[in-house]
Amino acid sequence: MNTHLGRAAAAVAACAATVSLAACGGADESDGTPGRSAKGETIKIGLLLPEDETARYEKFDKPLIEKEVRKFSRGKGEVLYSNAKQDPAVQSAQVEAMIVKKVNVLIIDPVDSKAIAGSVKKAKDAGIPVVAYDRLAEGPIDAYTSFDNHDIGTIQGKALLEALGDKAKSGQIVMMNGSVTDPNARQFKQSAHSALDGEVNIGKEYDTADWKPENATANMTAAISALGKGRIAGVYSANDGLAGGIIAALKAAGVSPLPPVTGQDAELAAVQRIVTGEQLMTVYKPYAPEAAAAAELAVALAEGEKIDGIINQVVDSPTTKRVPSVLVPGIELNRRNIKTTVIQDEIYTVAEICTDRLKAACEEAGLT
After folding, report:
1. In this model, does residue 109 exceed pLDDT 90?
2. At 321, phi and psi to the nearest 5?
3. Residues facing residue 5 across a β-bridge
4. CA atoms of 302 and 299, how far apart (whole Å)
5. In this structure, which topology does domain 149-284+332-364 adopt according to CATH?
6. Model pTM?
């Protein structure tokens, strides 16, 4: 993915890093283009999320986007929501339904970035702008917001290398990447390789279908059988769901102590595994600024406003060059900074993390 600085440069970058982006945009009257809402009219935003296997979409993304749409639309925004449950055909049908409902803008997090291209074109042909959310959809999208996926893979790879220390050269690792249908997974994989290649021996590598933890468990079981349970120094896991499946396979095989395992998304179960030492780290992605960017972009497009002052990057998709974008950096979360990340940002409370089972581990980690 090629990235370039957007026209608004440093001030815009600072704005994109905050939860509220309201000060970044301008305001023009609607020019009557189909899909756009005149001032004072109700704005209908279609929100299509890809799956509910990962906790973040229902717990964070959906309610945050709904809240931010209300805010940026000054209370006249309505979010129409559907979840594709990891089925590209279902998501395409959901786009068709949103077109029939005459939404003003679509926010789409694609199950399959290639498969959605035809549906994106149908929306555009109907005069409905499309904001790609979290994953870079193909087709004629108008804007994109996500995290800096190349940076995330690098954070994961470097954390694993640091944990391996002297074992990096002598041991071998397993790489558990995400789904091949997810463009983000390809970027995580590429950037993780840029950190790991030449520094560690990769014994086995897998692309995990549909990001399903049970598929990661099966892949890891196969890797243990092929490499030997005592010969795996570490595991690169692209996200927390996969990490849970990997750790289950390691435990079932009697691997002790557990090797360092990476993650992403700061799911509650992963944070708890980090507290107990079962998982090395995760990448905390502050969803509020990503959701705020998507909402602000969607409302601006619905009202016919310019989005130049909102964006902080320009990216190229396989089908669309120079897509106006807002990219948000990720943060490494480990046992040392749980308080200053997910607790400080009120993602989780200490009570949610520190159940009775984890009381001793939480005390040791300074969380009680």
Report:
1. yes
2. -90, 145
3. 313
4. 5
5. Rossmann fold (3.40.50)
6. 0.77
